[in-house]
Amino acid sequence: GAMRSRAEVDATLQTAKLNPAELLPVAHCLSFGPRAGAGDYCLLQLEPGLGAQLEAGCSLVIRGEKHEQVVLCSKDKTYDMKIADTSNMLLFIPGCKTPEQLKADQASCNIIHSQIAGFSNNYWELRRCRPKLKKLRKLLMEDPYEGPDSQKDQTSTSSKYTTEDLLSLIQASEEEILHQLQVIDACKIEGYWRILEFDYEMKLLNHVTQLIDSESWSLSKVPLRTCLEELGSLEPREMIEHILLSYGRKYIDDAGEVYFEMQEDKICRVTARMLLQNAVKFNLSEFQEVWQQSVPEGMTTSLDQLTGLALVDKSSRPEIIFMLKVEDLPEDNQERFNSLFSIREKWTEADIAPFIQDLCAEKQTVGALLTKYARSSMQNGVKVYNSRRPIS
């Protein structure tokens, strides 16, 4: 269309009963460019921190396989992406000046003719979310490492994963993935991330604890070099070192020697797992006795080492304990609660907390989750929670 003149602009303001004195002197006249359309552009709303990262040259990555809900990752955080519809059409105008810029630039001409390059009725909204890390363990468990002599490893056709592979498959930021690899005690073997097969891990740990015992070392001062010298003929040195890193805290003494302080809770916990995985249910007092006898000399077992690994049934006579691993439960909130309520109908907050703790979003409490997914009642003076929906 023809360009508007100032007189036309003023006439329009008069018709609209607007007082020109209350407006900035500059008028924007908009027209659609020849190729302006919807769908040419996507808008993404960023929090200031993410905007600054982009401007500093960092990149944001969209992750997920075709069937997964899309997430966006920065270097260290993960965000859900949701489309937000707007009632006002959003117009894209290249080189558009804001009122602040126009105020500062008083001398600018009276009418600015701008072409609209595109428009949109929605934008992507980011919401900080929990990284979806369950899949990491699942992928690595497809082919656990059984040691250097394993025939299976030579003939195995199942996929192995590099850091790059995991970055493209796991919906989490790089830092969250690398941290989780540490949490699950994965190790890099020939460039691939692997989890040790449980029996092999136990075999390595036993070598170390037996050596500690035979040398009468303090559990807080296990020398790396001697371990490697003594056990290196039995297993690869990097495996011995990996098991020390998994079950000990590394430190260096004044003379520059590397030592490990063995982690009592972690060793007691894995010993319990070994005992529990061979029994469906275990008489609690018998279990506690066998467990204490099975851990290295000088370590003390206690049930609070088993949060998120086992459940005690106090209502049965005698009391029993059985394995329930939080990492085997579903990642989705509703499915998690469904599966917990099918295991036990009524839970106290203390019992259920370890099995839902990991579902809490930022600043969310276990109590808030329970309010949403369970209903509470009093039973013999104790608050208990059961399902909001019938459990099939």
From TrEMBL:
Chain ranges passing through the membrane: none
Source domain of life: Eukaryota
GO cellular component terms listed in the entry, alphabetical order: chromatin; chromosome, centromeric region; Ctf18 RFC-like complex
Keywords, alphabetical: DNA replication
Biological process per Gene Ontology, one example term: maintenance of mitotic sister chromatid cohesion
Stretch forming the signal peptide: none
Family: Belongs to the DCC1 family.
Protein name in the entry: Sister chromatid cohesion protein DCC1
Organism: Psilopogon haemacephalus (coppersmith barbet)
Gene transcribed to yield this protein: Dscc1
